[in-house]
C-alpha cells in the first residue's frame, strides 16, 4: 500500500515497513510522571482486550509448567505488572501454584507495578542480563510488547538471555503490524486513552512492530514465529 493509497482508505501512514524512527512517549525519562502512572494502570484494561494472553496461557504457558502444578515464571519488561498478576490468577483458577517474578530496568515501571503485589508475585528493578549473571532459572520466560522496542543487537541479547533463563519455554508476544490492527486500535483506544500515552504510544508501537514473515527472519536459530489472535505474533523457543 502506498502512502496515497493509505490516505484514501483512511489510513494516512505507510505500514509496509517497520518505522524504527519512532519513539514512544513513555520511554522519555522526562515524560509527565502522572500521565505515565495512568498509562501503566490503563495497560491492565488495554492488554485484557487486545493482548491475547489468556489464550496464550492455555496453549503455550500452562503446558510448559511442571506436571506437579508448581512452577516459576519470569516476566521480562513487566511494565506496570498486569501480566504477572494475571498469570497468577489464571494459574490459581487452573489448579497451578506458581511464582511470577516481573523485572524491568525502568524504576518508574517497578514503582507502579509494586503498588499491587498479590501472593506469588514479585517485582524487581533488574535486567535479563542481571538474572543470567546471578544464575537464576525459571520454568517459563515471557514478555509482552517488548520485542518492538529493541534494535537488532538488543533483541539478540534479549533472546539469548531468555534461552539461558528458561528451563522449558520462552514466549514473547507482540503486536502483528497491519492496516487492520492500526485501524482497530486507532478507533478503540480513544475510549481508554484520556490522560495517558495509551493511544499515541500504541499506534507508534504498531508502526514499529513485526509482520509474521519479518519476525521469522529476525529470530535466531532454534526460535519459531507464530501468528495469534488478535493481531499478535509470538516468538517461541523450547529448551
Features:
239 residues, alpha/beta, seven-stranded mixed β-sheet, 42% helix, globular
Give an account of the 3D structure.
- The chain has 239 residues and is of the alpha/beta class.
- It has 10 helices and 7 strands.
- α2 packs across α5 and α6 packs parallel to α7.
- The N terminus is likely disordered.
Map the helices and strands.
Elements: H1 3-8, H2 33-50, H3 53-61, E1 70-76, H4 82-93, E2 97-103, H5 107-113, E3 121-124, H6 128-134, E4 138-144, H7 152-165, E5 166-175, H8 179-188, H9 198-208, H10 212-218, E6 223-228, E7 232-238
Parallel strand pairs: 1-2, 1-4, 2-3, 4-5
Antiparallel strand pairs: 5-7, 6-7
| Rg, Å, rounded | 17 Å
Distance between the termini: 39 Å
Topology as H/E string?
A: HHHEHEHEHEHEHHHEE
By oligomeric state, this entry counts as: single chain
Question: Main β-sheet, in a few words?
Answer: 7 strands, mixed
- In spatial order, strands of the major sheet run 3-2-1-4-5-7-6
Secondary structure: number of strands: 7
Mean pLDDT: 93
Ranges with pLDDT <50 over ≥5 residues? 1-9
Q: What percentage of residues falls in helices of 4 or more residues? A: 40-55%
Amino acid at each position: 500500500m502506498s502512502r496515497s493509497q493509505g490516505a484514501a482508505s483512511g489510513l494516512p501512514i505507510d505500514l509496509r515497513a517497520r518505522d524504527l524512527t519512532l519513539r514512544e512517549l513513555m520511554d522519555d525519562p522526562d515524560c509527565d510522571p502522572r500521565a505515565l502512572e495512568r498509562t501503566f494502570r490503563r495497560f491492565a484494561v488495554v492488554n485484557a482486550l487486545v493482548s491475547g494472553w489468556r489464550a496464550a496461557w492455555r496453549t503455550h504457558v500452562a503446558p510448559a509448567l511442571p506436571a506437579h502444578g508448581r512452577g516459576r515464571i519470569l516476566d521480562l519488561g513487566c511494565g506496570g505488572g498486569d501480566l504477572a498478576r494475571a498469570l497468577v490468577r489464571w494459574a490459581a483458577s487452573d489448579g497451578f501454584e506458581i511464582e511470577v517474578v516481573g523485572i524491568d530496568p525502568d524504576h518508574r515501571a517497578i514503582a507502579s507495578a509494586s503498588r499491587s503485589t498479590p501472593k506469588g508475585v514479585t517485582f524487581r528493578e533488574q535486567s535479563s542480563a542481571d538474572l543470567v549473571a546471578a544464575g537464576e532459572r525459571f520454568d517459563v520466560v515471557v514478555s509482552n510488547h517488548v520485542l518492538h522496542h529493541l534494535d537488532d543487537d538488543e533483541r539478540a541479547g534479549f533472546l539469548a538471555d531468555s534461552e539461558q533463563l528458561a528451563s522449558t519455554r520462552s514466549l514473547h508476544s507482540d503486536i502483528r503490524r497491519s492496516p487492520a490492527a492500526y485501524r482497530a486500535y486507532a478507533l478503540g483506544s480513544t475510549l481508554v486513552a484520556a490522560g495517558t500515552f495509551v493511544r499515541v504510544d500504541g499506534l507508534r508501537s504498531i508502526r514499529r512492530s513485526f509482520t509474521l514473515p519479518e519476525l521469522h527472519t529476525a529470530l535466531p536459530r532454534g526460535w519459531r514465529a507464530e501468528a495469534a489472535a488478535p493481531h499478535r505474533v509470538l516468538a517461541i523457543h523450547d529448551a
